[in-house]
Amino acid sequence: MDPRTPNRKEPIRLYTPEERTRRDNTIWTLIQGVLAPLQFLVFAVSVVLVARYLWTGEGYMAATISIVVKTLFLYAIMITGAIWEKIVFGQYLFAKAFFWEDVFSFVVIALHTAYIWALLTGSLSPVDQMWLALAAYVAYVINAGQFLLKLRMARLEGEAVV
User: Fold this and answer.
1) How far apart are CA 27 and CA 8, in angstroms?
2) Where is pLDDT greater, at 152 or 157?
C-alpha cells in the first residue's frame, strides 16, 4: 500500500520515509529554500516598480528590468525544483505529491514567458506589458501559496513522524 494513500486512520502523507530522507539530504532543498525568498523579494520590489509605472508613467526601464530579473529567478527555481523532484521522487516534474503545484507553475511560467516575448517583439505596448506582468504576478502569488501550504503540510507531517 502506498504510504501516501490514506486509510481511515492515516492522514495523506506528502513523503514516504525514503523520500523524506532524500529530501533532507540533498543540497537542492537548501537551494530551493534560498531561491524562494529571494524570488519573493525581487517580486515585491518589482510590483512596486510596475505599479509606479502604471500610476505615473515613469520608471518603465526600472520596472522592465525588475520583471526580467523576476522571470530569471522563476526559471532558476523551476529548473532547480525539477532537479529536486527528480532526486526526492524519482521524476523531474509532476510527482504525485506536487502534481497540481507543478501544473500551475507552468501557467506562471507561460505568463512570464509571454511577457518576455512581448518585450522582445514589441507586440504589446509598454502599458499592456505591465498588465501582463501583473497577471503573471497574480498567478505567481497563487502558486507560491500552493507551495507554502505544502511546506506547512510537510512540517506538520514531520512533527507527527518524530
Assistant:
1) 36
2) 152
Task: Using the Cα atoms of residue 66, residue 133, residue 148 and residue 44 in order, give the sign of their dihedral.
Answer: positive
Is the pLDDT score of 54 beyond 70? yes
pLDDT at 4 over 60: no
Q: What is the mean pLDDT of residues 109-115?
A: 98
CA pair distance 69, 9, nearest whole angstrom: 46
Pair 77, 98: CB distance under 8 Å: no
Q: pLDDT at position 102, please?
A: 94
- DSSP per-residue letters across the chain: --TTS--SSSPPPSS-HHHHHHHHH-HHHHHHHHHHHHHHHHHHHHHHHHHHHHHHS--HHHHHHHHHHHHHHHHHHHHHHHHHHHHHHSSSS--GGGHHHHHHHHHHHHHHHHHHHHHHHT-S-HHHHHHHHHHHHHHHHHHHHHHHHHHHHHHHHHHHH-
Q: How many residues does the chain have?
A: 162
